[in-house]
Model the fold of this input.
Amino acid sequence: MEMHQVRYFLAVCETLNFTRAAENCNVSQPALTRAVHKLEEELGGLLLRRESSLTHLSDFGRLVRPHLEQMMLEAEAAKSTAMQFLRMDNAPVKLGVMCTIGPIRFMGFLAAFGAAHPGCQITVVDGVPARLAELLLAGELDLAVMAQPEAFNDRLEVRPLYRERFCIAYAAGHRFREKNRIAVADIADETYLARVNCEYNDRIKEHCRDRGLALRVGFRSEREDWIQTMVAAGFGICFLPEFSATIPGVLTSPVVEPEIVREVSLVSIAGRRFSPAVAAFARSVRAYRWPVEPANCPSPNHQPAHPIREPLVSPALKSIAGPLVVDRRGRCDSVE
Done:
């Protein structure tokens, strides 16, 4: 059964005249008649009766007509949806973002992309790298922005976006306030607050062991807001990526001796064809010039580089034309 056969039959149903139906469909009458006969052969019954100059539906034709009309409506709806998708109207982009990446880092990019592609609907799913990789491989994510110290799965294509140093986060009145840089050896006597979802935990512990340090862990949590609140309250210090959003009262200085750096990358399935919207997003995120900001260097008037203030959503973000949905997975919370 072909759609043009159904369309020609329904045109005859409307006019009850083969000649006018052919004119309405912009085809010759013989072509329309042949198409209707082929449809009758395929369905196995007579759809129309032609008696002298009169044409009317058979009982069989009246029976199948509603089904064929519904078929045409659904075909038109599918065509309309496909055209919207290709034009990137209401086109979905499912983006995974590692939960330890600070959201403020992405506001400029999202504002620029939303202005250029207002029809794209971006859903942000945050989680740990292993979970995001699973979602990518399962086809539940289109792209992911993440980092990990070990090699990625061979099925994943990895394109570096920017490098980010790790810092030590401490309270405003801490002795580290006077240091522009903090060596790993300097934290020997500090209480360590462990960010459970940090993908570089093992690497950080390895650097400490290499220098004869044993981290004295005072608290562990999957929640970034809990760890930072405890840092601000003076409970201890923690390692924090350079571009993380910080709450008031938390200061940071970059780690040296050794410097600990992660490479944040755009990750996708190797060889997978993208939809127009996803392809546009991938091109934009690769071409975007990510701001290179120095870590917070303490001074008498030092303030965090990315402090969280109310309101959390900046006026620039409100200009994004495309809708943005955030979906949290993998038991990971960002600072809110």
Notes: The two ends are 56 Å apart (CA to CA). Confidence is low (pLDDT under 50) at residues 294-305, 308-322, 328-336. The chain has two domains: 3-86, 91-328. Residues 47 and 60 are 6 Å apart (CA to CA).
